[in-house]
Specification:
This protein is an alpha/beta fold and 440 residues long. Helix content is 51%, strand content 10%. It folds into 2 domains: 149 residues, Orthogonal Bundle (DNAb Helicase, Chain A); 251 residues, P-loop containing nucleotide triphosphate hydrolases (Rossmann fold), CATH 3.40.50.300.
């Protein structure tokens, strides 16, 4: 008897003989008769659950006599099947499970195993039918992400009245030991005053703007300040090149103009800047032991499972445990969960990223595209394609650079949404030095 067949039999024996296990199995909506390889096991499991759920029967275990009567009355079974089912039921009521430690974990393990085998077979059918292995990989990626979410505890309960003293003690500890409470600040004085608690692990923030207004540069700014605050940063790029992003970080760290760095323009009066750049970088290396990893992904082929694999690989192979995840831009990613409606497709990327950040307790920050027809002072509804993206974000900032501001070398940041205070709508003026990638 195979391991899966043994598990099927034990599940059936559990619902027939153990009322506590029967109650747990009835609460799980993941198992149906179709999940069983042996039809009689699936039939017995489903009828035992349905009998227990029926309020007319007082939530009782199903007896052998009742189950046998159900067999005889089942019009979907022919005479041969009825005879086989009756023999099997007689045996089931004489036996006990090999594994008596019934639990929801056993049910969940059974479901995961069955679904994994089913998806493996589906992936194999795709390859044999069309030869497109990428389609099979996409199918398995979607399934594995769903299974990973299922494996995590998806709820947590706190007792509010009894937990007051504990909450106050935690708040006092965070006040007295600010370094232990990881909160991302933005390094812009007025903005940090308006957002005094910053972004904490599990939260997801974004900077939204129209094309060409400086979203990616602001993302670099956040990554650099995260590094200075003691965060291990993983910066995912989907549209820019390594040299461009690395050059922006170099300019920000050294205060040498981006164009001079990229052109290696260190002759004549610029000769001193080469020494300055090296000196500033040496100071940076001495100031922090944290790392900043830049990862280039392929647009429209990257999804949240790609991101999870990157983060896990960096930690496993290089010891780089991500504290701050930057993504520029999720709008060029694909969702794992597929929807027919384009709006839901775009929003799903953000849903999946938010779920992962919550489970992993990683701070997330991304760039988001604004609609081309957005006003100079946009609203959350102006986040391109799907308001759902703005709805689930914990913090949504707008980077505003009107033509007048552009000519004056100015910009501003608006707080479109924050869950943690009432400063929504506030606007912070900026004096960016985009030649050196400074935002202040």
């Amino acid at each position: 008897m195979s391991l899966i067949r043994s598990a099927e039999r034990d599940l059936v024996l559990g619902v027939l003989h153990d009322e506590a296990f029967l109650a747990k199995a009835a609460e799980s909506s993941d198992i149906s008769s179709e999940d069983f390889d042996k039809p009689v096991f699936g039939w017995a499991f489903e009828n035992a659950i349905n009998f227990w759920k029926n309020p007319a029967y007082g939530r009782r275990k199903i007896t052998k006599n009742i189950l046998e009567r159900m067999v005889n009355r089942d019009r979907t079974l022919d005479d041969d099947d009825k005879a086989k089912y009756l023999r099997s039921i007689s045996v089931l009521y004489k036996r006990r499970a090999e594994n008596p430690d019934y639990s929801m974990e056993q049910i969940n393990e059974f479901v995961k195993t069955k679904k994994f085998v089913k998806h493996m077979n589906s992936a194999a059918d795709i390859i044999e039918g069309s030869g497109k292995i990428d389609d099979a990989i996409d199918l398995m990626n979607s399934f594995l992400f769903t299974m990973q979410l299922r494996g995590e505890k998806d709820w947590e309960a706190h007792d509010w009245k009894d937990g007051f003293e504990e909450r106050m003690q935690r708040r006092k500890h965070e006040r007295d030991n600010p370094d232990t409470a990881k909160r991302l600040k933005f390094g812009i004085r007025e903005l940090d005053l308006l957002l005094p608690r910053g972004l904490k692990p599990g939260e997801f923030g974004s900077i939204a703007a129209k094309t060409g207004k400086g979203k990616s540069i602001f993302c670099n700014h956040v990554g650099f300040h995260g590094l200075l605050q003691g965060f291990n940063v993983t910066h995912i790029i989907t549209e820019n090149e390594f040299s461009q992003i690395e050059g922006r970080y170099d300019a920000r760290a050294t205060s040498v103009e981006y164009n001079d760095l990229m052109d290696y323009n260190f002759s004549g009066e610029n000769k001193h800047m080469l020494r300055q750049a090296k000196r500033m970088f040496d100071m940076l290396r001495d100031a922090t032991d944290c790392k900043l990893k830049i990862v280039k992904c392929i647009p429209n082929k990257t999804n949240v499972t790609t991101i999870i694999n990157i983060i896990n690989t960096l930690e496993r192979k290089e010891g780089h445990k991500t504290d701050l995840l930057l993504i520029d831009s999720p709008d060029l990613m694909m969702p794992v969960t597929q929807f027919k409606e384009y709006r839901l497709q775009r929003a799903a990327v953000y849903w999946e990223l938010k779920s992962y950040l919550l489970e992993s307790l990683i701070i997330g920050f991304a760039t988001s595209q604004l609609k081309a027809d957005s006003e100079d002072t946009p609203s959350p509804e102006d986040v391109a394609e799907a308001y759902d993206k703005a709805r689930l974000l914990d913090l949504l900032l707008f980077l505003i650079r009107t033509m007048k501001q552009h000519l004056l070398g100015e910009a501003s940041i608006g707080i479109a949404k924050t869950r943690d205070n009432d400063n929504m709508g506030a606007v912070v003026p900026l004096k960016p030095d985009l030649k050196r990638m400074w935002i202040a």
